[in-house]
Specification:
The complex is a heterodimer of chains A (about 750) and B (about 140).
Chain A (H helix, E strand, L loop, with lengths): L4 H7 L30 E4 L2 E5 L2 E2 L5 H10 L5 H6 L2 H9 L5 H8 L4 H10 L2 H11 L8 E3 L7 H13 L4 E4 L7 H15 L4 E4 L3 H9 L5 E6 L4 H6 L4 H13 L3 E5 L4 H4 L8 H14 L4 E3 L6 H4 L5 H14 L3 E3 L10 H12 L10 E2 L18 H11 L10 H21 L7 H9 L11 H13 L4 H10 L3 H16 L8 E2 L5 E2 L19 H8 L7 H8 L8 E8 L8 E6 L16 H14 L3 E6 L6 H11 L4 E5 L5 E5 L9 E3 L7 H15 L19 H13 L8 E7 H6 L1
Parallel strand pairs in A: 4-5, 4-11, 5-6, 7-8, 8-9, 9-10, 15-16, 15-17
Antiparallel strand pairs in A: 1-2, 2-3, 12-13, 14-20, 16-20, 17-18, 18-19
Chain B lengths: L12 H4 L17 H5 L12 H13 L3 H13 L4 H11 L6 H13 L4 H16 L8
The chains are: A alpha/beta (about 750), B mainly alpha (about 140).
Chain lengths: ~750, ~140
Amino acid sequence: MIKTKRYQHTKAKEINNDVISNEWPEIGFVATESPNDPTPSIKLKNGSVVEMDGKNRSNFDSIDCFIANYGINKQTCEKAMSLSSQKIAEMLVDVHITRKELVELATGLTPAKLTEVVSIMNIVEIMMAQMKMRARKSTANQAHVTNMKDNPILIAADAAEAALRGFAEVETTCIVGRYAPFNSIALLIGSQVGRPGVISQCSMEEATELQLGIQGLTSYAETISVYGTEGVFVDGDDTPWSKAFLASAYASRGIKMRSSSGSGAEVLMGDTEGKSLLYLEARCIWVTKAAGIQGTQNGSIDGLAISSALPGGLKMVSSENLIASLLGLEVASGNDTWFTGSDMRRTAKLITAMFPGTDFITSGYSATPNEDNVFAGSNEDSNDYDDYYMIQRDYLVDGGLIPVRQKDVIRVRERAAKAMQAVFKALDFTPISDEEVEAAIVAYSSKDMPDRNSQGDLKCAELIMTEKITGIDIALILKKAGFDEEANSILELNRQKVAADYLQTGAIFDEKFNAKSSINDVNSYHGPGTGYIIDKKRSLLISKMNNVIELEKIIENAGECNSEDDIIIEEIGNFQKSHIKDEVVVAVSPSFGISQKKTLGGVSHLHVLNEIKAGLEEEGIEAKFVKCYESADLGVIANVASKLSGSGVSIGIQSKGTSVIHHKDLSPLSNLELFSQGPQLTKELYRMIGKSAAKYAKREVPTPIPSVVDPKIRRFFVKAAILHYDDTNCIVRNKPPVEFKYKGVIDCEKE
Amino acid sequence: MKKNEISIDDYPLRQKRSDLLFTHNGVNINDITFENIYAGVLSRDECRISKDSLILQAKIADDIGNTHLAGNFRRAAEMIEIESDRIIEIYNALRPYRSTEGELRKVVKELKEKYNATITATFIEEAIIIMKERKRLKGDR
């Protein structure tokens, strides 16, 4: 079949390697509203739920039972369920209805009702509601810090950099599980070097993860998975009760914890009961809430490949986060899983969480290149930092990150690596060499790290568990080795486990270890100008990227050039119009060769005039030069010059390089040929402009000089605007055009 | 402790009410210092949360209307005295197809009698009923 060439171009794009599919509700391939989803309902008898979502208690599975017994608010559910889903959806976007009222209402709503409510909403309404329903007022972000070699020195350096960049939580895991104690210690030390108060976790199987927390090597846990069907829950080797017990176990050791769920998991594990992705996720979220867990990591997570394949799939993923917020949970809103080869698509996904703001905009921004991300790649990685900063700056949204300077990055990476070196030395572990420290400071990925003796390391890592080396042991070592601040931070983390403030919903620490949670930093959004406002200080911090150009310096820079390219303008006197036919008048703007010495494209004004003059002379035409003082407008100066020109042909040049060939019979805004893209004009082009103008003067019909259209030219607009501002500042009213000669500074010196 | 003695205004306790915060061995939070560790006043593995801290946090959660979270904290408060290894064992016993009804009843008894963990014990009794109904006990597979 015949295909257009454009088709072939678009077909080759990465987006077309993404896998998308049709719906197949019977096996759960449907984002929302499966024909098998139940109709919302609730019935109470003697204060207990006897019917929920069309099912009698006798038919309840363990998930239904758990939600009905411990979740649903029996005092309010009948009234809450009597409201129409339309009405509740309207309340969600009504700024006059508070978050508190809605959380109270939601705890009386069944999973099917919650699903129905958010399914009515479009993506902008979902984002609007998310902004209001987020638990914590200020937003935050979480990083993945891993590498394919499980290299602990690199983990420490990367954690330090991640903390410096603003992540409030850092998460690691291992390729080889037995490295977990090393990775945990590295993450703990690195994070406290980067910014005191950042908390850390090591994602492992339950028993190890809990043990690491008990030893004070980690401060929180996140991988307590819950599922939406009983079959999958059992396949996951748990029941809602065992998970709830585990949740309390964490709290009993002063360890923050959130659960993890996400649409698509049941599809991947092959038991969906034909229900929609969203309905099953609503059940997961309710299990989390009913277990008394403070928060969840949700938003499809590992199931994203399934969700994102379906029509409306990514809208559904955003509504998962909203349901969790609606139930008052802390939400770490996914965006931690690679799912597309398209930058546009992954950015769109990110924005649905970043613009409204969630408690953790990503539950795992890869602080390393994705090639080192042991969670099989995130939606954003270390190569995206500047993109992320730019979006924060553009929209003045707080994505939880701040731009950093390289010298600070190097400082914290070095300190983290050296702290690891000191700890390994004190514990008599396989030494960390100076070479390894140096490599970790500048590494792009673990490929830049020397290989370690894995046998030796694994033995030492095991010792950490068998000898029960604690966070306090690490603090004592750091203190002795002179890392006082980090030692104090780790000791304070231990004190915080005794205080347990950070077990409350949505808690993070600031750099002084003040817990900020939905208790003392509760989201108070109720319309424009309320809720989380980026203050002046934070706004400056977010905006201060490394590549910000200082407008004031642009003119200064334009006035600088090498002496061999420098120009001297010598004014002769008021320009006298001649009637010589074989001349072209070349007009320049007021600042030309004075406050500005080169074009935006970097061609010195000396060379501009030399080339034009040479071009004209090649065609036997004489060049005359005039400076127009009354205007910096290209059309005006060229028009004035054309009227002074014996041939009627002129060339106008602005200091920034923009040029035009004009004729006396044309209006100022018209022209023979316009070269508006100043930055692209090269010496060769100025010569061609000279030659063309000469041909016009000789009444020939030259072939127009081909112009190039390049959208990137807009990168020069900021500079162009400033240089034009300078040009207009040099205007002298009522000063007639002045004829001038020019010389190179070098020629002048020779004379 | 009197009702309403603690409210969300006392949060964060670490900064506002450190006088109420002790390790499970009764060391005040402000006495968790390097000096006290060096002096042997405090052993390096003693920095564990106390039952009281979790009850205080449960009250704060109640005060903000989060009864679900408060319930978790109250179960957790009961579990503080259970050794970590035993906690893991009980967790494993609660997993599908791991235990008979009788084995789980023994856990309930242990929680009640050894640890005075009545809320948690009731919670597990409720689990037993469902696990029986849904055939998730040992031998049901």
